Amino acid sequence: MENSRESYSSNSDLIFVVIAVVFWAVGGIIAYQYADDWFLPDPASVEAESVDNLFKFMMGVGTFIFLLVETSLFFLVVRYGFMRDRNDDSDGPPIHGNNVLEIVWTIIPSIIVFVLTILSFQVLLDTTEAKDNEFEIDVTAQRFFWTFEYPTDGEDDIELTTSHILVVPEGETIRLNMTSVDVIHAFWVPQFRVKQDVMPGRTTELRFTPNQTTGLPDDFELVTLDDLEVPGPDDACPVEDEVTAPEEVDVGEAVDELTDEDGEESGGASAPPVDYENGFNLVCAELCGLNHGLMRGEVFVVEREVYDAFIESLRVREIANAAQGEYARRCGGRALLEAGRRLFSVDDGFNCAQCHQLDDAGSLVMGAGPSLNGVGDRAAERPGYNGAEDYLLTSIINPNAFIVEGYSANLMPANFADQMTPEELETMAAYLALQTEE
């Protein structure tokens, strides 16, 4: 009778083990098959395939091991816990180990780790190795935005840059030469499956080959020089532009536009600077300061002919902006206000609105920096400077020259003298000097 019971128990255990192994295998196969669909966004680069395959393999193996451990625990708890003879108080048989079992559970994990190492190294080579005919773009990271400088044909000295928005041609290997001007950042586009730290004092590289087009940003228009009104050096200043004070802004109405139906802020310094439906999200994946969560951007992938038209549009806009800046400095008034607002903006300027409140420029929410409303009055009262413009220009070039009470040093990037031309710096200082309380 005892032998019959032991035989029945052994058969039951064997059946359970067979069912469990099948369950583990099916779970691992399902995890391998659908892991990328469950956990990853749709791939948009050539490199994504090898990364996804590695991820799927790891998920399949990990799921198999997870199910093995959990079902084994469940079996042992039930088999030797709930199903044990409650009246049996005798000692169990002495066991001094099982050499075969220990060899198996040492060799199998070693093989798995070795295979993962080989596969991971191959993926690392696929995503980082230099390739022929790479398309280089320089990237500058600083709290809390990205700046991209595109290559030019060398015919002129115009620097073609965008902030927060990166446009690249489809099907070409892109190499980003990245550096930071302040702290450590990290460039990450989930759809491309690539991420790289961006550090001050050194240049790091990131490569990807986009294979899914998005089109250009919805609000970006391709233009030629004929499409823009570019003032000439001899153009007269209209009489109505001869004013010295900014237009009055209806702050209440503008704030209403920055809030959603629930009263939450939907713009300004509390929201990412760009939010397009058709771009790939660019995220800073390294905690870099107070507004780290807002250091976001978009990557757009277009056909080569569209990319060439985009670059030409950037060049045309830079030429037009330079002419308009000269016109603004010569005429002052409304022309200076319009030029200053453009330089102050996130979309077309130098991202001042990301950190500073200034009603005249439509930046109505406080960011990491002090409010610039009425800064012209305060600047004019600073001793040791030759007027408000001199103080404001010094503060832009050397932000730590004077620290506003309640704010810390090194909060504002100290590289605007490199980013902005002398003419743009002069325009910005003159524009801010117009921001008075009157």
Summed up:
By secondary structure, the protein is of the alpha+beta class. It is built from ten helices and ten strands.
Keywords:
438 residues; alpha+beta; Helix Hairpins; 5-stranded mixed sheet; 10 helices; 42% helix
Distance between the termini: 104 Å
How many strand units? 10
The overall average pLDDT, rounded, is: 82
- SSE order: HHHEEEEEEEEHEEHHHHHH
Largest sheet: 5 strands, mixed
Beta-strand level of the residues, as a percent range? Answer: 5-15%
Give the oligomeric state: single chain
Number of separate helices: 10
Lateral arrangement of strands in the main beta sheet: 3-2-1-5-8
CATH third-level topology of the domain at 2-84 and 97-128: Helix Hairpins
In the CATH hierarchy, the architecture of the domain at 2-84 and 97-128 is Orthogonal Bundle
The structure class reads alpha+beta
Q: Helix coverage percent of residues? A: 40-55%
User: Which parts are unreliable, with pLDDT below 50 for 5 consecutive residues or more?
Assistant: 241-269
